[in-house]
Design brief:
Length: 457
C-alpha cells in the first residue's frame, strides 16, 4: 500500500506527459538515427504543462555532457540550399536576372522560409519529409492575432508586428515575382509556382524565426565570392540553421550551453561550386550543456538574454519575473510631451543630445530611468545652469541615475502611458483568451508594474 501511494504521488507531481511513443515521434527518432544523429540516451521528448513539447531527461545530466550531435547534412543551412539544384533553378532558369535585379534584397531568414515552403510542398519527395511533418502547424506569436484584437494591444507589440509584416510582405512579393518570371519546365517548380501562398510563407517564416539556432559555417565554406550564387540575394549573414530535435529544446534564461562545429577532415573554405552532401558527413554540429539537470526534469538551453517583448513576438512565450523588461519611449514622444509643458529645447541642446547619442534607448525598467533617458533629462534641466557641468553629470549617471527632480519632469507622461496600457487591458479583458493574447496581457501587466513602481519612487 505504501509503495503504491508513493508511486501515485510521484505520478501526480510530474508536470509532463511522455510522447516518445507517438507515431510521428517514433518516425522522427528513427529518421534521425538512420541519418547519423547521436543524442544523449538519457533524453526523450515530452509534453510539459507550462511549456508544451520539450526535452526530458530520464536520468541525471551533469555539466559538460553532450546533449546531441548532428551531421551537418542533417541540418537545413546555407549549404543545404546551395546544393539543392532544383531549388536553385527557380532563380537561374528565369527571364529576370535575379542575382542582379534582387541583389542583397532579402534576409537569409526569408530565403530559408522560401526554401522551407518549397520542401513542404514537395511532401514525401525529399529526405526532410518526416522532419517537416514533426514541426508545429501554428505558432503562438502576436503576428497571428486577429486584426480586431491587435487594435487593443500595446503599441510596442504592434510596432514589432508591423516590422515583421513589412519584412514578410516585401520578401513574399519578391519571391512571387521570381516565381512568375521562372521559365523552367520542371513539373516540381511548376507545381510550386501554383501552390506558393502567403499563408504557407508566413508559417515557414516563423518556423525559421522560432526554431533556428546560430551556426557559423564561414570556416568551412567560402561565402565571399558568391556573385554567381543565390547567396548574392542576401543582405545579411547566413549564420542560422534548422537542427532537427535540437529545435525542440525549450529556452531558459538560466541555462548555459556551448555549441561546437566538429570537422573530422581537413575541410576548410570549400568553394560554393564544390559543395557535396557526402563532404559534410564529416562535419558535425554538437551542443553541450553547462548545467546539471535532475532526473525527470526538463532540459533547457538559452536562446540568449532577451526581454519579454522579444520573447513573445519572436518565439511566442512569456517569462515571468524577467528583469530585462522595460517600457520604451521615443525621442519624438518625449519632445512632444515637453512642448506641452512649455519646455522647448534649443538647437544647442539638440546638438548636444545628438552628439552624445541620447536620442535612442530611452526607457524605464525596474531600476528606473535608462542611462540615456537620464542623460537626456539632465540636458533638459541643467544645460543652461552655469553652476553645473552637464557632461560630467551625464557620465556620473552610470554610477547614480536616480534624481526625483528629473523623474518629476516626465511623471505626467509616464502616467499617461500607464493609463493607456490599463485602458487596453480593460478592452482585452472582454475578448476570449488564447495563448497568444495571454502572453500580450502578461507583458502589458509587466509594463504596468514597471511604470507604477517608477511613479511611486
Amino acid at each position: 500500500m505504501g509503495r503504491t501511494r508513493r508511486k501515485r504521488k510521484i505520478k501526480k507531481d510530474r508536470d509532463f506527459c511522455a510522447c516518445d511513443n507517438q507515431e510521428e515521434i517514433v518516425l522522427l527518432n528513427s529518421w534521425l538515427s538512420k541519418h547519423g544523429m547521436r543524442r544523449n540516451d538519457k533524453l526523450s521528448l515530452a509534453v510539459f504543462n507550462d511549456t508544451g513539447r520539450g526535452v526530458l531527461t530520464k536520468r541525471k545530466i551533469q555539466s559538460g555532457e553532450e546533449l546531441m550531435n548532428l551531421p551537418l547534412n542533417l541540418t537545413i543551412n546555407v549549404t543545404t540550399i546551395l546544393m539543392d539544384n532544383l531549388f536553385c533553378k527557380i532563380f537561374f532558369e528565369n527571364s529576370k536576372r535575379c542575382l542582379v535585379d534582387y541583389k542583397q534584397s532579402i534576409s537569409f531568414q526569408s530565403l530559408m522560409a522560401f526554401y522551407l515552403v518549397f520542401l513542404k510542398l514537395r511532401s514525401g519527395k525529399t529526405k526532410w519529409h518526416i522532419y517537416l511533418e514533426s514541426l508545429p502547424k501554428e505558432y503562438s506569436v502576436p503576428y497571428f492575432l486577429p486584426n480586431d484584437v491587435k487594435l487593443n494591444i500595446d503599441n510596442d507589440i504592434l510596432s514589432v508586428i508591423s516590422k515583421q509584416k513589412d519584412i514578410i510582405d516585401s520578401s513574399f512579393n519578391i519571391f512571387e515575382n521570381i516565381l512568375l518570371s521562372n521559365v523552367s519546365d520542371d513539373s516540381a517548380i511548376q507545381e510550386f509556382k501554383s501552390s506558393f501562398s502567403l499563408a504557407a510563407y508566413e508559417w515557414a517564416y516563423f518556423t525559421v524565426n522560432t526554431r533556428c539556432v546560430f551556426m557559423d559555417l564561414s570556416k568551412v565554406v567560402d561565402l565571399k565570392n558568391i556573385e554567381h550564387s543565390i547567396i548574392n540575394l542576401i543582405c545579411d549573414n547566413t549564420k542560422i540553421s534548422l537542427c532537427p530535435y535540437l529545435d525542440m529544446i525549450n529556452h531558459s534564461p538560466n541555462a548555459r550551453n556551448e555549441t561546437k562545429l566538429l570537422v573530422s577532415k581537413n575541410i576548410t573554405n570549400v568553394n560554393v561550386n564544390n559543395l557535396s552532401e557526402q563532404l559534410f558527413c564529416d562535419v558535425h554540429f554538437s551542443i553541450y550543456t553547462k548545467n546539471d539537470f535532475d532526473p525527470y526534469t526538463q532540459v533547457f538551453i538559452c536562446y540568449g538574454d532577451s526581454h519579454n517583448l522579444k520573447l513573445i513576438t519572436e518565439y511566442g512565450f512569456f517569462l515571468p519575473d524577467n528583469d530585462l523588461d522595460y517600457v520604451s519611449f521615443t525621442f519624438e514622444e518625449v519632445i512632444a510631451f515637453l512642448k506641452t509643458k512649455s519646455i522647448k529645447l534649443s538647437q544647442d541642446q539638440i546638438s548636444f543630445i545628438n552628439n552624445h547619442g541620447l536620442r535612442k534607448d530611452l526607457y524605464i525598467d525596474c531600476k528606473g530611468l535608462s542611462y540615456n533617458f537620464y542623460g537626456l533629462l539632465l540636458v533638459v534641466k541643467y544645460y543652461y545652469d552655469q553652476s553645473t557641468d552637464v557632461s560630467r553629470l551625464i557620465y556620473s549617471a552610470a554610477i547614480c541615475s536616480h534624481d526625483n527632480n528629473l523623474n518629476d519632469i516626465i511623471a505626467p507622461m509616464v502616467r499617461t502611458k500607464l493609463n493607456s496600457i490599463k485602458e487596453s487591458l480593460d478592452k482585452v479583458s472582454n475578448i476570449n483568451k488564447c495563448v497568444i493574447l495571454n502572453n500580450c496581457v502578461e507583458l502589458m501587466c509587466q509594463y504596468v508594474r514597471i511604470l507604477e513602481k517608477f511613479i511611486k519612487c
